[in-house]
Design a protein that fits this description.
Elements (H helix, E strand, L loop, with lengths): L19 H9 L5 H5 L5 E3 L15 E15 L3 E8 L4 E6 L4 H6 L5 E11 L2 E5 L2 E2 L9 E3 L8 H11 L20 H9 L7 H6 L3 H26 L11 H9 L6 H14 L6 E6 L5 H14 L3 E5 L3 H15 L6 E4 L5 H13 L4 E4 L13 E7 L6 H8 L10 E6 L5 H7 L4 E5 L10 E6 L3 H13 L3 E5 L7 H18 L5 E4 L5 H12 L5 E4 L12 E7 L6 H8 L10 E6 L5 H12 L3 H11 L28 H12 L2 H11 L2 H4 L4
Parallel strand pairs: 4-6, 9-14, 9-15, 10-12, 10-13, 11-12, 13-14, 16-21, 17-19, 17-20, 18-19, 20-21
Antiparallel strand pairs: 1-8, 2-3, 2-5, 3-4, 5-6, 5-7
Helix pairs in contact: 5-7, 7-21, 7-22, 8-10, 9-10, 19-20
The protein binds adenosine-5'-diphosphate (ADP) and magnesium ion (MG).
Length: 683
């Protein structure tokens, strides 16, 4: 590759084999230059280094096998398939293909030897691998990277492209080079990450603690730190409308609530109250475990702004969650004579126009919605406060877009951000270096902890019966389906099938279904019916993970919980235990469990506290198992993990300080690691 331009400016089509179609697919992954590709990091690795004897295989194992074909042929079942029985002296296994060509068929003659990689599962006649990958000579000497992929772009294709791009790593700008760290050079680090050499420390790579990974994590954290500091400085220099509290509306709300605030809610509400009175924009993050009562704290902030004569926008990342806030804010604020406007992504036409008009004219004091709130054409009359729930689902840049809508006369609205992501305070300050942090570290009284049990799926019929009994007693239940490769389509299919089966097994129950493939209005209708008690049982994918509040739902079944990480399990379980009824959660696992999965389920049985669970999560992470990928990322980090890499943070702070004095170097890092919207935000 003739080094014409640096990789940062070399288009991806410069690589051999990348035409317009491939470039379009890469573009979907955010890859447009050779440098982008080099920073397209593996999500995880597969360990194909160890060949397992057939006799030792168990369902669920991902394994490399080396065996001899004993017998092969096609089979006309419901779908025609090609079957090969293979053996290695310790046992035998069936390989199965539904799609196959004559070449493959010819190669599978009795006596032929081969090496295959695949997932072991139970088939009609014993253990089998469906569509095993035939392994090439030399492959499997080292870990195999698995990349974020997209339709039409396979893992082998990505690996080949990476191979072609890697020589360019040496030409990347490296602003952190040679400043005496004991971490490897950038190019070496990338080489190791994308093409782990056989002698590399496998364990460390799988766990994300390898120096190569830490080198990239360090860069990313420095970039993030620089970006956030610039944001904070910009906000501090800006004006915001001071929102003096009169207590007229907030006191009325407090008087109308059927409960008293907890001490933690009081404290956080006071911190917010003080911030809002300032002439600079509040930038505060409220962190509180699921069920800690963040919404009412947000409502108090909203009413203070309204008292002072300003509007409030309340934004949530999903329709379901936004709808939840609409219900709360309407219930609390309409009796006080306020109009609450509703702006969702799906509403078009008259209702949308009416809502937008109420907001633009200033008649609606509070606007609740999804990202529709900051879309083109939305104008606020006098926006003084923006409240954002579950911020990690939004990029920083979306938060900034809403800021543009407000304040008037060049002023910015105040911002209140709420998250349930339990990260320790010191880390929060680093993750959200542009924010002040308040923590609601106490739960409302009278909650009985959710009783959690783990039950093997061989006892599924008992669990189904239990659901039937609970619903007969007037309780409501969730049944959550999980999948490993969470494509929306396959998750939806699994949930549909489960809903059909449960409907058949429990014919007297009203069973609803939500998954990510439904249209928003369908999703919402199902949720509304569940909330209204018209449905007894809600079968769902993990789309219900965030924020849904149905106090009467007191039983949750999570299928295949061993596939989820602790953080996600905790979020899911937080959907029950919200009312006064005793709640339970059944972790319906598929055995045999790996040691790590067993420990995760044990933590879930024993603890109900987000911080405790987060600590265990850290200790149990990264065993190389397939976990949901989302749980690993706080604030959308790509290489770093704030908990795992916490020890880097002091050095990150120092380096960020130094780099702020070198704008060109800082810019290289910001371009590399921060999404576009965040980069220009501070200027
Ligand atoms: P989260 O922090 O997960 O958003 P919510 O704000 O949805 O929690 O609150 C969970 C439930 O607890 C709601 O039904 C809410 O009305 C109730 N709640 C909030 N604060 C208190 C309190 N101090 N005492 C009793 N119940 C409360
Ligand atoms: Mg909430």
């Amino acid at each position: 590759m003739a080094a014409s331009a640096p990789p940062e400016r070399r288009p991806i089509t410069d690589l051999h084999g990348v035409g317009p179609r491939q470039a379009e697919r890469l573009g979907r992954l955010g890859v447009t230059t050779v440098a982008d590709l080099l920073f397209h990091l593996p999500l995880r690795y597969q360990d194909r280094t160890r060949v397992l004897p057939l006799g030792s295989l168990r369902p669920g194992d991902e394994a490399v096998i080396e065996a001899e074909v004993v017998q092969a042929g096609t089979h006309d079942g419901r779908r025609r398939s090609l079957l090969a029985r293979v053996a290695d002296g310790t046992g035998w296994l069936t390989l199965r293909w539904f799609y196959f060509g004559p070449g493959l068929q010819r190669s599978l003659v009795p006596g032929a030897r081969g090496r295959w990689f695949g997932e072991v599962r139970t088939g009609p006649t014993g253990l089998e691998m469906v569509h095993p990958e035939a392994m090439k000579e030399g492959e499997g000497d080292a870990l195999t990277p698995i990349y974020p992929a997209t339709e039409g772009l396979t893992q082998p294709a990505l690996r080949t492209l990476m191979e072609r791009a890697l020589p360019a790593a040496a030409e990347l700008a490296d602003p952190l080079a040679g400043e005496g760290d004991d971490l490897p050079e950038l190019a070496t680090a990338l080489q190791t990450i994308h093409r782990p050499p056989p002698e590399a420390d496998t364990e460390a790579l799988l766990e994300g603690t390898h120096p190569a990974r830490r080198r990239l994590a360090f860069e990313e954290l420095v970039a993030r730190q620089i970006g956030l500091r610039r944001l904070r400085a910009a906000a501090g220099a800006h004006a915001a409308p001071p929102l003096a509290p009169t207590g007229r509306l907030t006191n009325a709300l407090l008087a109308s609530l059927p409960f008293n605030l907890t001490a933690a809610q009081e404290r956080v509400a006071a911190e917010i109250r003080a911030d809002l009175g300032e002439a600079h924009p509040m930038q505060r993050l409220v962190q509180g475990d699921v069920g800690s009562g963040k919404t009412v704290v947000a409502a108090l902030a909203a009413l203070q702004a309204v008292e002072a004569g300003w509007q409030v926008a309340v934004m949530a990342p999903t329709e379901i969650l936004a709808e939840q806030h609409r219900a709360s804010f309407q219930a609390w604020c309409e009796p006080l004579g306020l109009e609450v406007a509703w702006l969702s992504g799906r509403d078009r036409g008259d209702s949308r126009r009416a809502a937008a008009e109420a907001v633009a004219s200033g008649r609606a004091a509070i606007a609740v919605g999804t990202h529709a709130l900051f879309q083109e054409g939305m104008a606020f009359h006098d926006l003084g406060l923006v409240i954002i729930d579950e911020q990690h689902r939004f990029g920083v840049h979306q938060r900034l877009a809403l800021r543009e809508k407000g304040g008037g006369e060049g002023r910015w609205p105040h911002q209140l951000i709420m998250t349930a992501t339990p990260i320790p305070r010191t880390l929060a300050q680093s993750a959200y270096a542009d924010l002040d942090v308040s923590v609601i570290d106490e739960r409302p009284p009278g909650r009985t902890p959710v009783e959690t049990v783990a039950v093997p799926d061989s006892r599924r019929p008992e669990v189904v019966e239990r659901v039937g009994r609970a619903c007969a007693e007037g309780r409501q239940a969730y049944w959550v389906c999980t999948l490993i490769e969470e494509s929306e389509a396959s998750a939806a299919q699994a949930a549909e099938q489960t809903a059909a089966e449960l409907g058949e097994a429990l014919p007297t129950l009203h069973v609803g279904l939500v998954h990510g493939r439904l249209r928003p209005e369908e999703k919402e209708a199902v949720m509304a019916a569940f909330k209204a008690g018209e449905l007894d049982l809600l079968v769902a994918t993990t789309v219900i993970e965030v924020g849904v509040d149905v106090p009467n739902a007191s039983l949750m079944i999570i299928e295949n919980p061993e596939r989820l990480g602790l953080a996600q399990l905790h979020q899911l379980r937080g959907r029950v235990g919200r009312g006064s009824a005793k709640s339970s959660c059944v972790l319906l696992y598929h055995g045999p469990l790996s040691e790590n999965a067993g420990q995760r389920l044990a933590v879930m049985r024993e603890s109900d506290d987000g911080f405790t669970i987060a600590r265990h999560d850290l200790a149990l992470r990264g065993s190389g198992e397939v976990l949901g990928t989302r749980q690993t990322g706080v604030a959308g980090l790509r290489a770093a993990d704030l908990q795992r890499d916490a020890d880097l943070l002091p050095a990150v702070q120092q380096r960020a300080d130094a780099l702020l004095e070198r704008p060109e170097a800082a810019e290289v890092l910001e371009r590399r690691w921060l999404p576009e919207g965040e980069r220009y935000a501070a200027v």
